[in-house]
C-alpha cells in the first residue's frame, strides 16, 4: 500500500471512531469524551480511564493503547488487523471500551 493510500484508510478509521463516539453518546448514557489532535484520538470515560488511538505512518499502522495493553494494527484484506492476533481493530476497540466504561459499547468501521 502506498503512503497516500495508508493515510486515506487510516483517516477513515479515525473518522469512524469519532463518529462512533458521537453515536454512543447519543444512544447511551456512557458520556465518553473524545479529543482529536492530529493523528491521535483520546477517548476518556467518566471514571477517567482512557483509550488512545494513534496513527503510525512510518509503519503504516494504527496503534491502540488500553488498560489491558497496547495493540498494533495493519491493513489486511481491507480491515485493520492486530499484528499478533489478527483481531480486527473495531472489535477490539469495542471490547476495550466496554471493559473500561462498564457497559456494552459498540464501534464499527462504518460508523
TrEMBL record:
SUPFAM superfamilies: Frataxin/Nqo15-like. SMART domains: Frataxin_Cyay (SM01219). The keyword Lyase does not apply. It comes from the Bacteria. Keywords: Iron, Metal-binding. Involved in iron-sulfur (Fe-S) cluster assembly. May act as a regulator of Fe-S biogenesis. Belongs to the frataxin family. This is Iron-sulfur cluster assembly protein CyaY. It comes from Variovorax rhizosphaerae. The lineage of its organism: Bacteria, Pseudomonadati, Pseudomonadota, Betaproteobacteria, Burkholderiales.
Amino acid at each position: 500500500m502506498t503512503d497516500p493510500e495508508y493515510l486515506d484508510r487510516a483517516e477513515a478509521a479515525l473518522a469512524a471512531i469519532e463518529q462512533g463516539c458521537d453515536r454512543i453518546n447519543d444512544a447511551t448514557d456512557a458520556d465518553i469524551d473524545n479529543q482529536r489532535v492530529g493523528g491521535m484520538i483520546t477517548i476518556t470515560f467518566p471514571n477517567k480511564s482512557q483509550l488512545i488511538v494513534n496513527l503510525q505512518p512510518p509503519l503504516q499502522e494504527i496503534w491502540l493503547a488500553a488498560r489491558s495493553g497496547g495493540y498494533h494494527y495493519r491493513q489486511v484484506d481491507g480491515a485493520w488487523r492486530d499484528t499478533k492476533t489478527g483481531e480486527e481493530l473495531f472489535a477490539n476497540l469495542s471490547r476495550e471500551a466496554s471493559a473500561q466504561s462498564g457497559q456494552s459499547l459498540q464501534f464499527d468501521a462504518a460508523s
